[in-house]
Amino acid sequence: MRIGLINPNRLRQPPVLPIGLEYVAGALRQAGHDVRVLDLCFVNDPAAEIGRFVREHRPQAAFLTIRNVDSVINAEERFFLEEHRQIAALLANEGLPLVVGGAGVVAAPKFVRDYLGARTAVVGPGERAAVAIAEAMANGADLPELVDGFALPFDPRLAVDRAVDLDYATYYARDGIAGFTSSYGCPGACAFCIEARTPVRLRDPAVVREEVRSLVERGWSRMHLCDAELNVSYRHALAVCEALAGTGVRWATYLRHRPLDPRLSAALREAGCDMATVTVTSATDRPEDAAQAVGRLREAGIRVAVDLSCGLPGERPEQAREMIRALHQAGAQRVGVTVRFRVYPNTRLAHAIRRDPAERRWTHGDPEFSRPAAYCRFDPAEVCEWIAGMAEFAIDTGEAVNYQRLQAE
């Protein structure tokens, strides 16, 4: 079957390589399908480019990846699905059945599918799901509205060829960097997160090593790990670090503040990790644990940012202030404080707001949470007073990513 994989994401500050399409493309090719990738990130006229793509490659179906449904915590509240729906309509006008997947679909799977007019939506890992959908299409079978990628067999040794379908040079020239994955899913319970409490699937560290090594050999040695957080499994994190040592990669990662001991910190540095973002929630995490994590990474020579979430349901201001003091003393080089949370319909935060009508007073936007809606319990102006004089702290507005901020220091 001839399949077109489409990236509609046109954000460029920085541009984000759609590595999910690379993994899906590899899986589909290994299953015998003819795959072409259309990346619209740097295209000035999407309609003309889609028309050219269809004429030249004659795909029988289009798979569209959705990275984000909106701008998340950014105050301008851009709803990206409006732009993506225009692209979906262009594909439909070409007579192509549409399948949607990607990280953003998890936010509201049925809403995204219906809004874009897709036949089915994939939630979770897309490699095996894409193959199953392509086989069903080829056989003329009906497609389900939703396909749960976590429920399908997972091949931890699936190896795909990278940097063959996308223009890496243009991404890197504009401050984008390659990503790689070692796991899918997250056992965490962060109230605002669409990935929380999803099943964990671990890739074979040896396969991760060869994938990274091949990218380094092609000249793309600067990377970012795209797992929810590296240490969702401590043993797996150690194994991945040991596998990456000696590959020549320089990489950044997200980390939970626990588990993180001196052994893992040292292994990160030996593996070429030179930047880490530690995720901390002041409503639930202990300040001493968060501070210890920062200290251990700094001792290992790793530059450290913290993504600090403050002001979730039931949280007292003193909890946030205590965490801020602890992180300031620990010496993190950058702390982005999130006090404004995008409420997605299937998150614990959304459920808490629905259960307690009093929480609605902190919420504005779409009452169903499918379109942009925000929860803000703490006054940002007051939080600015709490962090006054702490140069490393700033209210996070989503204007940049941490690897850019730390590189600029």
Would you mind describing this structure in some detail?
- This protein has 2 domains: 2-151, Rossmann fold; 177-340 and 376-407, pyruvate-formate lyase- activating enzyme, CATH 3.80.30.
- With 409 residues, the protein is of the alpha/beta class.
- The termini are far apart.
- It contains 14 helices and 18 strands.
- The strands form 4 sheets. It has a 7-stranded parallel sheet.
- The chain has helices at residues 19-30, 46-57, 80-93, 109-116, 127-138, 168-173, 205-217, 234-244, 262-270, 287-299, 317-330, 348-355, 380-386, 402-407; strands spanning 2-7, 34-39, 61-65, 98-101, 120-123, 146-148, 178-180, 183-186, 198-202, 222-225, 250-256, 273-281, 303-309, 334-338, 341-342, 363-365, 373-375, 393-395.
- α10 (287-299) links the parallel β12 and β13.
List the keywords:
single chain; 409 residues; alpha/beta; Rossmann fold; pyruvate-formate lyase- activating enzyme; 2 domains; seven-stranded parallel sheet; six-stranded parallel sheet; 14 helices; 20% strand; globular
Quick recap:
The protein has 409 residues and is an alpha/beta fold.
Estimate nothing, just give the exact number of structural domains: 2
Low-confidence parts = none
Shape label: globular
Portion of residues in beta strands equals 15-25%
Q: Structural class per helix/strand content? A: alpha/beta
**Mind telling me which CATH architecture of the largest domain this is?**
Alpha-Beta Horseshoe
C-alpha end-to-end distance: 49 Å
Based on the structure, what is the oligomeric state of the protein chains? single chain
E-strand count: 18
Report the CATH C-level class of the largest domain. Alpha Beta
Strand order of the largest sheet: 7-10-11-12-13-14-18
At the fourth level of CATH, the homologous superfamily of the largest domain is tm_1862 like domain
What Rg do the Cα atoms give? 21 Å
Task: Using the coordinates shown, work out and report the CATH topology of the largest domain.
Answer: pyruvate-formate lyase- activating enzyme
Helix segment tally: 14
The amount of helix comes to: 25-40%
Mean pLDDT: 94
- Report the major sheet: 7 strands, parallel
